[in-house]
Amino acid sequence: MDVGRSDARFEDEAMAPVLAIVKGLPDATVASGADGRIVYANALAGELFGYPPEEMVGRHVQALWPERVRERYLRNMRLYFATEHPLRFSTEAWGLRADGTEFVGEMSWGIVETPIGPLLLAIGRDISARRAAERRLRAVAALGERALAGADLAELAGDAVEQLRLTLPLARVELRVAGGEVLSFGGEPRGAELRFELGADDELVGWFTREIADDGRSFVSAVTNVLASALVRLRSEERMRHEALHDPLTGLANRTLLRDRLEHALARSARENGTTGVLFVDLDEFKHVNDRFGHAAGDAVLAELGRRLRAAVRPADTVARLGGDEFVVVCEDVDEATALALGQRLDAAIRQPLAVAGAEHHLTASIGIALGRDDPDTMLAAADAAVYQAKAGGRGRVELRR
């Protein structure tokens, strides 16, 4: 290997065996004397630091260190040369390239006794890319753990974007989820646009101010996989919560959710000295629909009636299906007139002809109303009793329990 203007002492015949060994090393190699001057640098050292190797010879070794660590490295170097027994060890160290950029290297150091005196021999390689890859792996693992622990999606996505910003030239990112919702994170949409699928209907869209390498794309893909898993978990939990609290046929509240809503309504009425209304809806002679047209047609009729009942009440009211052909409506802050008017609207919605599977159905219901601030069981029992009054009066009636 041609070392150009190498220190003449390092090239003399006595140093030939040492030089032959050093030249064969597969890593960047720099040798410096006790005065800190570089006496040898191989071609790999030139590539690592950005200098022709011959131009490194004669320079002070501190030119290869970032200014912020020079004093500490110089102090250590003096200590190495002053130690009676030669030191040999490996550590990570910061290096400074000719263009002013820094890197972290994995270096082996040692004081070597040679015919020209003791030399500090530093052998190593740039591990900046490896360190960055390890940081990315740790970041993805941490995000994955938080996703499994049930972290909030928006918070998790924000942390994921922060990790991307620390690693990549990211100008803006958007998390687009099914249903049209977009979680946006800072900046303007400029630069190259890249899309990463999170699932059938979700995607992460990023704008990068410069080209990103394959390892950068892999990092974004790993992050999007974590977010995709979080979305799957979130939707699965939402689906299970919905199924646990809603009637599978009509999508209305079930008994569990009805009781919860009723308890909250009664508690609020007690605090505000108001009145809660419970309307019990019992379809008249619905068994004839099932017997004549079959249970599939009966289910279709009930599903349509559920939609009609929802449309007939106020937005804050709760419509629930108790099972079979029985429904309950809970409404807060109502008086007698308002409750009766709501009962009449429900009655009118049920009486409208309903076409299912080629047949037209004409239905009525007996509707019982209870008003008050009692406990849920008392209110439901009072509304149920009002239904019996309505049926006893001829069915297809609205009856208020007084």
Write up what this structure looks like.
The protein is α+β, with helices and mostly antiparallel strands. It folds into three domains: 119 residues, PAS domain (Beta-Lactamase), CATH 3.30.450; 116 residues, Beta-Lactamase (2-Layer Sandwich); 146 residues, Reverse transcriptase/Diguanylate cyclase domain (Alpha-Beta Plaits), CATH 3.30.70. It is 46% helix and 25% strand. The chain has a five-stranded antiparallel sheet with strand order 2-1-5-4-3, sandwiched between helices. Strands 11-12-10-15-16 form a five-stranded mixed sheet, sandwiched between helices. A four-stranded antiparallel sheet has the order 7-6-9-8. β6 and β7 form a beta hairpin. The longest helix has 32 residues. The chain is rod-shaped and about 120 Å long. The N terminus is likely disordered.
Tell me briefly what this model is.
The chain is of the alpha+beta class. The protein is 46% helix and 25% strand. The protein contains 13 helices and 16 strands.
How many E strands?
Answer: 16
Protein structure class: alpha+beta
User: Would you list the SSEs in sequence order as H and E?
Assistant: HHEEHHHEEEHHEEEEHHEHHEEHEEEHE
Instruction: Please state roughly what percent of the residues sit in beta strands, choosing from under 5%, 5-15%, 15-25%, 25-35%, 35-45% or over 45%.
Output: 25-35%
Question: What oligomeric state do the depicted chains represent?
Answer: single chain
Any idea of the CATH topology of the largest domain?
Answer: Alpha-Beta Plaits
- Rg of Cα set: 39 Å
**Largest beta sheet: what is the strand line-up?**
2-1-5-4-3
Number of domains: 3
Helix coverage percent? 40-55%
Which CATH C-level class of the largest domain is it?
Answer: Alpha Beta
Low-confidence stretches: 1-6
Cα distance spanning the termini: 108 Å
Main β-sheet description: 5 strands, antiparallel
